[in-house]
# Entry
Amino acid sequence: MNPHKIAGALTQELFGKLFSAKYQLIPNLNDLYELELAFYEQQILSDSALIRNGAYFASVGGNFTRHFLMCTGKSLKLPEHSSSRLKSFFEKNLFRTGYSTHGLFPYRGKFHPQMIKGLMNMMGLTPGETVLDPMMGSGTVLVEAALMGIRSIGIDASPFCRFMTQTKLDALTMSLNRARNALKNYEVVFDYFAKRVGKPVVGAKTRGKKVFDGMMSVMEPVAEYVTNADRTHLTKKQKETSDTYNFLLLAYLDSVGYSERSSRKPPIEQFKAILERYLFVAEKIQKILDGSELEIAPAKAMEADARDVPLEDKTVDGIIFSPPYSFAIDYLHNDAFHLNYLGVETESLRNSMIGLRGKKLSEKFELYQEDMEKVLLECTRVLRPGRICTIIVGTNNNQLGKALGINPKDVQGIHEILIQMGEKHGLKLIKIMSRPIIGISNTMRFEYIIMLQRN
Ligand SMILES: C[S@@+](CC[C@H](N)C(=O)[O-])C[C@H]1O[C@@H](n2cnc3c(N)ncnc32)[C@H](O)[C@@H]1O
# Structure
């Protein structure tokens, strides 16, 4: 081989071929799909829009992007006993997940917020427009959109998701004085919740049925807004009380989850560590927001059914969501203790949860497809013509193969089924990308990002 050829090839910069020197990528960007998103983002956004809302750039023309500024500084404060593996995971994910209030509560199947930001840019969403997530889960889309100046509406069948999302949104702006005092008196707060909500059963894998007299049994009367979307009647003081109450309650439920899974720390110490982390996260993002002149866009989190979206026709500028991965994750089972703590009757919820209806696997799969078709019809109805619906979905071929009685290799992936359904209803595939799922790669290797444009 000609040595000059080798030297010549190696002096070339791959990134330099994609982006001119004025664009500096964010550190730790090492997955191919991330590079793809960065590329499209840079193609679609102006330089000033990249500085304001870009997800994958540290600086443009020497000016730091807001994303870079929002993520840098001290990373999340983890409990001291955390393993070095967990610590390095957070360091590595500083720009992906470890910023804003996204770290509050570890919800299964949660989006990478940075990816959501990049996708919203690719979808052409701009400040003042409206995005919908019809299966918002922990509200990643709403929190991210709020920071980007994009209005958002989120719905989820689970009241716990509504509570979690609302609390993460409120934590962006709420007064933290009372939560700081609560941390100083964490023993009292812990006792209060332990009496009112219930104590963690250390080492319990799942929580047995616990019957409360409805969600209000654990809510202060003033925190009624958790079940009632209209909060306009609250005075400033009442709002502060309910914001603090919900912030503490989420931290308590989070700590209960940890304590029930691991007995490494006494529950009360776990609660203290989690509350400290919540305060750190909220203080950090609030400080960043105070120092910038950008306003947070309105976000509305609702408890509703994605098969019957409570919105008028052609009213949203973009839709982005991730359906339950077929029936791979039983969200009700996972959230049983939180839902039970909130006094929600989980079994009656099961009927409206996509992927959980039906008994045998094959029946579940039939119903899953039926439900997802309804969701896609609703997405088409509420989306403005020409705008984009992005779906992020993984496929568990082994499980599907079992359900259909065929070889997993011959299974048609959920993403392919959704694309076909979309095309039937006026949503045209314009882009498909895949990304590897790390950690559970034995059963589900790839997650697909499909972008469908409304006719
Ligand atoms: C994969 S998770 C979404 C996670 C979310 N993207 C996040 O960042 O946290 C899917 C969600 O769909 C919700 N879901 C299931 N059936 C639903 C229905 N009929 N209507 C609305 N949401 C539903 C589940 O409660 C679950 O939170």
About this structure: Residues 78 and 131 are 32 Å apart (CA to CA). The pocket of S-adenosylmethionine is lined by residues 107, 109-111, 134-135, 137-138, 140, 155-158, 161, 305-307, 322, 324, 331, 352-354 (CB under 6 Å). The mean pLDDT is 84. The first helix runs from residue 3 to 10.
